[in-house]
Design a protein that fits this description.
The chain is of the alpha+beta class and 518 residues long. The chain folds into 4 domains: 2-114, no CATH class; 201-293, Beta Barrel (Thrombin, subunit H), CATH 2.40.10.120; 312-410, Trypsin-like serine proteases (Thrombin, subunit H, Beta Barrel); 416-515, Pdz3 Domain, CATH 2.30.42. Helices cover 18% and strands 36% of the residues. It has helices at residues 2-13, 116-149, 190-196, 246-249, 290-293, 398-410, 431-437, 453-457, 476-483, and strands at residues 23-26, 31-32, 56-61, 75-79, 86-91, 94-101, 169-170, 176-177, 200-213, 219-235, 239-245, 252-258, 264-273, 278-284, 312-317, 325-341, 348-356, 368-370, 376-383, 393-397, 420-421, 424-429, 442-448, 464-468, 471-472, 491-500, 503-512, 514-515. A hairpin with a 4-residue loop joins strand 1 and strand 2 (31-32).
């Protein structure tokens, strides 16, 4: 490169111990090129034996001194050599003009360099930056001293130390700040598990699944086995009652309950409510060994009404049928509308559930979701299954489940001689059908029997039954399952959706149930 040749030329004409740096100056563009060189003589004396000092000589390559700095390819050198007068000469094939500016002895005379407007602008920017840093430091220091001298009671802060009675803070704009967190850790839940796990059971469901029908009308079934969980919720002198999901006990021919000490006992279905996916099973106390009775506990039910998103939650259940396991997380959301399919009828069931990040896996269904006090706040129900989704489990809120569970425990199936009927036939309106046809979910009435309880109550063909005595109705089988607990002559309230002038309107009617065998 060109600047390496220039360096060699200067080295050959000067002392070996001289320090060199180079500068290319682009005068037309008013900018300094990237390669910067200036040569300084350490001894302050030229090679020609001039007087000591810092007398300077300026060389302009390729032009005379009178031409100035007109070319873009000029090279600018400063040496410590002393010389007399002005003149022109050539060196290594290049023409130079020399100009000597003698300086007073013992005092350096600075060479004024023509840096142009760009360099001047750069200097101004540098000075502005230095001024800004200095003034900013002074301003910050003054403000800090001022804050230190203020009374502590006058300080505003975004930490918890503002002294406000509600624990919140504010800033100078008046917008409230966040308060100090009172969250408790969920890293160690061993005490909660020790206290709650004796009330959790594993459930094994031996059942039969219908596969289909052949040409001659014969049905084919196969034996199935599934696992789930349950919560001991109450006890009488003769039985203990266990809450679980309806889909855990669906299609069962035999149910087996496994307690905390691995003792297995046969259980019976006490009642089911497919519309809410809840069920209660019972175990006779006489079938439970005395040592097992000493180890099991009845769960403490809390309230799901007062819980908040972000609160800690612990899920306990028989994950994958391996036995009781524990997962932790938080309440992720409230009132999530989740649709599941009924195991027996295939009908879609939609309920409002709690969402949690605690892992809910197959076998966890029917188990307990508890808070940091060890109180049951939900009954684990389903997990959102998708390869792109992680940490989305759902539980039935205990405040919604408790009255249904109590009803399933206390009510009895009515004797066939006194069983009731409503007098309707209908078609299930699933979520998909409701969306496709713009109608409400429930039981669409296709026929009303003459002189039936339904006709007398004012129910008509084309109406949709959504609730029966406060219970959701989403299928014909669901309605029949509810009616088995009602005796003939019972007065019930039925909620309908009726189409009036092209719009669905809610309507409530009262019906006195008729006798099924009449």
């Amino acid at each position: 490169m060109e600047h390496n040749n220039n360096e060699n030329n200067l080295n050959s004409n000067n002392e070996s111990n001289s320090l060199y740096s180079y500068s290319y100056l682009n005068q037309e563009n008013q900018e300094r090129n990237p390669n910067y060189y200036e040569k300084q003589e350490e001894q302050g004396q030229g090679a020609s034996g001039g007087q000591p000092g810092s007398n300077e000589r300026t060389y302009v390559a390729g032009v005379s001194a009178e031409q100035g700095y007109a070319r873009n390819d000029q090279q600018f050198y400063t040496t410590g050599q002393a010389s007399q007068g002005e003149g022109q000469f050539q060196e290594n094939g290049q023409a130079y003009s020399s100009q000597w500016n003698p300086a007073p002895e013992g005092k350096k005379k600075k060479q004024k360099k023509h840096h142009g407007f760009g360099a001047t602008l750069g200097k101004c920017a540098a000075l502005a930056l230095v001024f800004g840093l200095v003034s900013g430091t002074v301003f910050y220091g003054t403000g800090l001293i001022f804050e230190r001298t203020k009374s502590p009671a006058q300080l505003e802060t975004t930490t918890g130390g503002s002294g406000k009675t509600d624990g919140t803070t504010s800033n100078s704009s008046g917008i409230p700040g966040t308060s100090v967190s009172t969250a408790t850790t969920i890293n160690d839940v061993a005490d909660i598990v020790d206290n709650v796990i004796p009330s959790i059971v594993s459930i094994t469901n031996m059942g039969q699944q219908q596969l289909g029908m052949d040409f001659f009308g014969r049905t084919y079934t196969q034996d199935t086995e599934s696992a789930g969980s349950g919560i001991i919720i109450s006890q009488t002198e003769e039985e203990i009652y266990i809450a679980t999901n309806n889909h855990v006990v669906a299609n069962s021919t035999q149910l087996t309950v496994n307690f905390v000490d691995d003792q297995s006992v046969t259980a019976q279905i006490k009642g089911t409510d497919p519309s809410t996916d809840l069920a209660v099973i019972s175990v006779a106390i006489k079938d439970i060994p005395a040592e097992t009775m000493e180890k099991i506990k009845v769960a403490t039910l809390g309230s799901s009404d007062g819980i908040r998103v972000g609160q800690g939650a612990v899920a306990i259940g028989n994950a994958l049928g391996y036995g009781q396991s524990v997962t932790t997380g938080v309440i992720s959301a409230m009132d999530r509308e989740v649709t599941v399919q009924d195991e027996q009828t295939g009908a879609s069931i939609t309920n409002s559930l709690l969402q949690t990040s605690a892992a809910i896996n197959p076998g966890n269904s029917g188990g307990a979701l508890v808070n940091m006090n060890g109180e049951v706040i939900g009954i684990n129900s389903v997990k959102y299954n998708d390869t792109s989704v992680e940490g989305m489990g759902f539980a039935i809120p205990i405040s919604a489940a408790e009255p249904i569970i109590n009803d399933l425990i206390t009510r009895e199936v009515v004797d066939a001689s006194n069983s009731s009927y409503l007098g309707v036939s209908g078609q299930d309106v699933t979520e998909d059908i409701a969306q496709d046809f713009g109608m409400p979910e429930g039981l669409y009435i296709t026929r009303v029997l003459e002189n039936s309880a339904a006709e007398q109550a004012g129910i008509k063909k084309g109406d949709v039954i959504t609730e029966f005595d406060g219970r959701k109705v989403q299928s014909m089988d669901g309605l029949k399952g509810i009616l088995q607990y009602y005796a003939a002559g019972t007065e019930v309230e039925i909620t309908l959706m009726t189409n009036e002038a092209g719009e669905w309107q809610e309507k409530k009617v009262t019906a006195v149930l008729g006798k099924k065998n009449d």
